[in-house]
Structure formats: C-alpha cells, structure tokens
Design brief:
Layout lengths: L1 H24 L3 E4 L8 E7 L2 E6 L2 E7 L5 E4 L4 E7 L5 E8 L2 E9 L4 H37 L5
Antiparallel strand pairs: 1-2, 1-8, 2-3, 3-4, 4-5, 5-6, 6-7, 7-8
Length: 154
C-alpha cells in the first residue's frame, strides 16, 4: 500500500512540474515595441526552468505571480502583463517599470530549441560563406599584385 501511495505521489509531482514547464513555454517568443521606446524588442526564452526576457538594456528573470499572465520583472522591479486573443494565444505584452509603460505585440514564437539552433546554424554558415568569399577575393588580389610586381609583367 505504501508503494502504491509513494508511486502516485511521484507521478503527481512529475505531472505538476511538467505542467508548469509547459505553461511557461507559451510566453516565449519575440515581442516588438513601437519606435521611441527605450526598448524596441524583447526576446522571451525559457531555459533551465526560468522565463527570461532579453533586450538591449539587459536581461531579467520574469517571475510568475498569483495573477494569470502577470509576471514580476525581477532585475528592474517592474511588472509584465501578457495579453491573449479570443483563442487564448499570447498576442502581446505590457511592461511597466517605474514611469515607463509600454505595450508590444508578439511577432514570433520560439517553437523549440531545435528550430532556433537550425536558424543559428544557417546564419553561421552564411557568415562562413561570406568570409570564404572575402578570403578568395583577397587571395585573388594578392595574386594579381604578385604578378604585377614581377619584372616580366612590367
């Protein structure tokens, strides 16, 4: 009887932790704010059990409060409130820190780490190709200079 009770308790704990992880994952994505605000974009990511917002001003943990869709912005002592559409999907975010009050819209969601990694790899390979292209151009220029510097070609 104790084993059954202990097994059910472990199962309940696992399901609770998994539900919290899934519920925080829905807040991830890119949020754009109108020009003129100190921050024009905030990227929300869920890593190592923490929901984190990153912008040009820095990053902060977003800690869930008792109220649904409301988070404390820990590093800046502010509040973030997420907006939903009729289907219940997150469509925007309101950020309030001191006198700053701004609203942004969700422009892109981060579906999975795999998608992000593949996007990163594609950008990295594009950079490598550009570097290789520049290297070949430089090698061609150096070859031409060597040819010109030889006495036979003058």
């Amino acid at each position: 009887m104790k084993r059954i009770f202990f097994g059910l308790l472990l199962l309940f704990c696992f399901i609770s932790v998994r539900a919290q992880t899934d519920s925080l994952q829905e807040y991830t994505g890119k949020f754009k704010f109108p020009d003129g605000n100190p921050v024009t974009e905030i990227n929300m990511v869920f890593e190592n059990g923490l929901l984190t917002g990153t912008s040009v001003l820095g990053n902060s943990e977003f800690r869930k409060t008792e109220t649904k869709d409301v988070f404390d912005i820990v590093a800046y002592a502010g509040v973030a409130t997420f907006r939903r559409n009729a289907e219940g999907k997150i469509t925007g975010m309101r950020v309030q820190v001191n006198d700053l009050d701004m609203e942004g819209t969700k422009t892109e969601g981060i579906q999975s780490a795999g998608k992000w990694e593949s996007g990163f790899r594609n950008r990295a390979s594009n950079c490598k190709l550009k570097i290789l292209s520049k290297t070949f151009q430089l090698a061609e220029i150096l070859t031409r200079l060597r040819c010109l510097s030889q006495p036979d070609n003058i």
